Amino acid sequence: MKGVLGWIKSHLVMVVSAIVILASLTTGWIFSSGWNKTIRTKLEANASKAYGDVKNAKVTYVIPSLLPGEQAVTQSRAPNRIVTDFVKAQRAQRVEQASGIVDKVEGFNRDGHSLLATKLLPVPVDASQAVRQTYDFLARMGGDVRTGVKSTYVDLLSSIGAGGPPDPVKLATTIQDLQQRETERMAAEGGGGALNAEQQQQLRKALMDRRIAEAQRRAKEISVYADLSSFDPQGFGPDTAPVPPLDRGLRNSTETPTLAEVYEWNFDYWLVSDLFSAIDHANTPAGGTRANIEHALVKRIEKLSVQSLPIFPKDQNAAYPPPDDTSSSESAAGQDPSVSITGRVSTDAYDVVNARMTLVVDAGRLPDLFRAFADANLFTVIDFDVSEVDTWADLRQGYYYGADPVVRVSLELESIWLRDWTTPMMPEQVKTALGVKTPGSPDEGG
Fold first, then answer.
1. What angle do CA 71, 76, 81 make, to 5 degrees?
2. Distance between CA 138 and CA 132 in Å, rounded?
3. What are the residue boundaries of the structural domains of the chain, listed by start?
4. Which string of DSSP letters, residue by residue, matches 44-77?
5. According to the model, what pLDDT value does residue 315 have?
6. So what's the pLDDT on residue 111?
7. Pairing relation of β-strands 59-63 and 350-362?
8. Spatial contact of 211 and 107, defined as CB atoms under 8 Å apart
9. In the chain, what percentage of residues exceed pLDDT 70?
10. Do the beta carbons of residue 75 and residue 61 sit within 8 Å?
C-alpha cells in the first residue's frame, strides 16, 4: 500500500489528469444527453416548419394579355415543373407576338410616308444651299403666284378624283344663252308677243333641267367635290396647322422658313394625305373602280382642318418652350380623360394630332366611312354630328349628289404618330420643342 501511495505521490500530476478526464467523460455524457435532446427538438421543429412551408407553397403563374379587353390568365398553385415550363413557353410566345404586333403597327403607321424635303431634313445636306431650298420647298407646298407654281395639294386632290362643281361663269353663260334662244323661239311661236304664263313655266323648267343636266355631267366626271377652298384655316383656332402653307409669293421675304416649319409642312401633308386616302378608299368599291359622285359614299368635302403640332410658341418672338413638367401623372402615362373619349395624349412614344372634317355623305353608309378611316391609318373618330342638307340650295350652286339621301356629318378624328419612325426625321429644333428624348441625350442618361 505504501508502495502505491508512494507511486501516486511521485506521479501526482498524471494521476490528477486521469481523474479529471474520467470525471469529464462522465459529466460530459450526462450534459450532452440533455443538449442532444434540446437540439433534436429544435431541429425537428425547424424541419417540420420547412416541410410545411414547402407543402403549402404556391406560385402565381401569369400569362399576360396582349389586346384591349383580353383577360390575362392567372393561376395560383403549388410549384409544378411541367406547368412552369408550359407558362414559360407561353410567355415567350407572347413576347414574340407582341414584338411582331409592334413592328406591324409601326409599318402600318409609316406606310407611304417619306420625307418630301430630303435635302433639308433632318439636317441640310448642303448648308450653303439650305435657305434657297427652304424657299423652293415652300413654293412646292404652298405654290407661288409669281412663277405659276401650283401647290402639291392640287395634285393630292386630283389623285382622289376631286374637283369643283361646274364653273359658275360658264354655267351662267350657258343658262343665259339657253334662256335667250328659248324665249325667242317661244315668242315666235306665239306671234312675236310676250310669253304667256304657260310658256314662262316651260322656260323655267327648261332652264332648271339644263342646270341639273350640267351638274349631273360634272358629277359623272369626278368622285368628290373638293378643292383648295375646302381647307379651313381656323378649324382649331390659333392651333390650326397651315394647310396648305402660305403662298411663297405672299410670304414676307424677310421671314426665312425654318427647318421646324419645313418639318411641319411635311408632317401636315402626311396627315392630309391619309385623310384623303380614307375618303378615296370609301369611294372605291371592292371592284377597285372609283365611283363618281352619284354613287360615291363621300360626295363633298366642305371643310378640312388639321391641328398643328405644338412646335411653335404662341408668341413667335419667344424662345421654344421646354417640355411641360407640370403635366399630370395621367398625361405622362398617355391618358387624360378630360381630353376626349379615348383620353389619349402625346407621350414619349407617340404624338396625338387631331383633324376636323365636314362632309356630305350617303346617309345609309356612315359605318363604312368610319371603317375607311380605320383602314387608312391609326385614326379614331372621337366625335361626330349629323345634320340635314338642303340639296336644292346646293344644286343651285352646281352640287349634285345623286338620287340617294345625303346628310352633312362633322367629324373629329384623332391620329397617332409613332415616334420610333418620326423622330429620325425631326430637326433638333422640333425635338426640343416636343421634348423628344433620344439615346445619348441628358434625359436618357447618355
1. 110
2. 10
3. 59-109, 226-243+258-316+334-444
4. HHHHHHHHHHHHH--EEEEE---STTPPPEEEEE
5. 47
6. 95
7. unpaired
8. no
9. 78
10. yes
- Please name the amino acid found at residue 202: Q
Closest-CA residue to 238 (of 334, 316, 303, 340): 316
The pLDDT score that the predictor gives to residue 297 is 97
Q: Residue 368 in contact with residue 320, Cβ under 8 Å?
A: no
Q: Mean pLDDT score of the chain, rounded to an integer? A: 84
Residue 284 and residue 111: Cα distance in Å, rounded? 20
Q: Which helix (H) or strand (E) holds 410?
A: strand 406-418
Closest C-alpha to 363, from 388, 395, 383, 381? 388
The β-bridge relationship of strands 162-163 and 224-225 is parallel
Distance CA 300, CA 227 (A): 10
The arithmetic mean of pLDDT across residues 96-114, rounded, is: 84
Contacting residues for 364 by C-beta, under 8 A, at least 6 apart: 404, 405
Q: Which fold has domain 226-243+258-316+334-444?
A: Alpha-Beta Plaits (3.30.70)
**pLDDT over threshold 90, residue 12:** no
What is the spatial distance between Cα 365 and Cα 142, in angstroms, rounded to a whole number?
34
Give the model's confidence band at 319: pLDDT under 50 very low, under 70 low, under 90 confident, else very high: very low
150: exposed, middle or buried (Cβ count in 10 Å: 0-12, 13-18, 19+): middle
